[in-house]
Amino acid sequence: MTAPEIRLRPRRLDSDGWFARTMVVTGYPHQVRAGWADPLLSFPGRVDVACHLTPVPGPLAARRLRRRRARLESAWRTDTAHGRLEDPQRTAAAEDAADLAERVALGETRLFRLAVYATVHAPTPEELDADVRRLAALAGSILVDLSPATYRAWEGWRSTLPLGTDTLRTGRTVDTEAVAALMPFAGAELPTGAGRTAVVHGENAHSGGLVVWDRFHGGLDNGNAVILARSGAGKSYLAKLELLRSLYTGVQASVIDPADEYGRLAEAVGGDRVRLGLPGGRLNPFDLPAAEDRAPTTRALFLHTLVTAMVGALTADEGAVLDRAVLDAYAGRGITPDPATWQRTPPVMADLGTALRDWTGPAEQAGAARTLAARLGPFTHGSRRDLFDGPTTARLTGHLTVVSLRHLPEELKTVGLLLILDALWRRARDPADRRPRLITIDEGWTLLRDPVGARYLFDLAKNARRHWTGLTLVTQDVADLLATDLGRAVAANAATQILLRQAPQNLDAVCESFHLSRGERRIVATAERGSALLAAGRHRAVFRALASPVEHRLITTDPAELAHLEGEDR
């Protein structure tokens, strides 16, 4: 195979089937904002843009600034001595130099040598000339001057290759703020200042830059998010992508998975996979947490919520009986309000049934105890006891925990959700293990359709921020989410809302609940699969989810692709 022939022209480089011209940025705007150079990066033609940065040592920067100020001052004095009019540009340059020298001396900023080059590629010389003119016009609109690298086409082309080599060496001195504003990761649509937990969500559909978002950024009210879409719009794909990239940043993640779709991801990254309802996936609601509120009396509060979800609403007598029976069940295992007893083996649901049947409290409540014991019978000694018949066997301590509800019967889904949410919430409140956490609930309508579950989820959404935890609710049943006061409250407590394509019957409710404009309504009504509107207060960005081939293999739910991947594995 022969190497391609390259011909050097005064202002372009010709090779087999393509032509290239390198343009040098020679003039910059006086003031810049974050992401000001995004138009250059989103140019529709084929353009390679390279930025070369070289730090300028502090002593050298101070000497250069002194010389620069001396030249400007000398020029001003010469103009004054000859009676010339004051040059506004020179005056502005002198003021900028003085301000910059002061900030460098105080250590508030640093100087860099910045060189920006853009190599335009085209299949013909005519198209190359046309693309260069369009690029120059676009650059002029943001007050950027471009000049061709005349007689240096070879050096210009090499300077825009991913080699980190600046062979043109036509840089300009700028400060830290100007360099930061040039970076394409600081889009104007979203606030800057993201921390170490920021992740790339995808490509900005308008500017072509990257949408980088940090759920745990201090400027947000909380780390909660809702992902809403119609079936097949890509909501689970996007949730998995954010989850996977959050793991890279050190976030501990947990997923409540109703359809066992996250299992491949968990196995690939070495996470824990729990199948609730099977012997290896049992969670005992009587376990005492490893936090300050370990007393059995505090567990009685959750057990009230759980039993209500299991058997329905309780009467006043049944509520009082349940409270006493829970403490009796703990006492039967030797666990009392004395902290010295809290390390003992906790009771199980069958012990609660025994305490109700062997009621030793007030005689007038014996009837309520027998009634409640009978209502709990299926869960203590009947067909539904497998979920509670024994100690905890599930492991929830890894960097990623995926809890599958697929093996639970439909009538136990809400109970299973409460069990796992309680276990994850106890872990998040552990003061000995402070770290950012994500709890993702896929198809969250399963919990919201039950009033008891909706109330528990609402309380969790309100308090997650205090424990460095973000709650993600993913659902396709937008109407169910927004149909109840609690559902709307859960959505309102999410600082981040990601809206993919919505079903026509849900458009009005979505637009009203999230205060979408007419243009944003069109976006969520016609968005392509994988495209979404990210809304966080007054900040908006439309993006397309981007995944690498390796990430795509782990998160895709397309049946045809899964069948192909399984065939490759065999």
TrEMBL record:
Domain of life: Bacteria
Gene3D superfamilies, per database record: 1.10.8.730, P-loop containing nucleotide triphosphate hydrolases
InterPro entries on file: P-loop_NTPase (IPR027417), P-loop_TraG (IPR043964), T4SS_component (IPR051162)
Signal peptide interval: none
Ranges for domain TraG P-loop: 415-529
Name recorded for this polypeptide: Conjugal transfer protein TraC
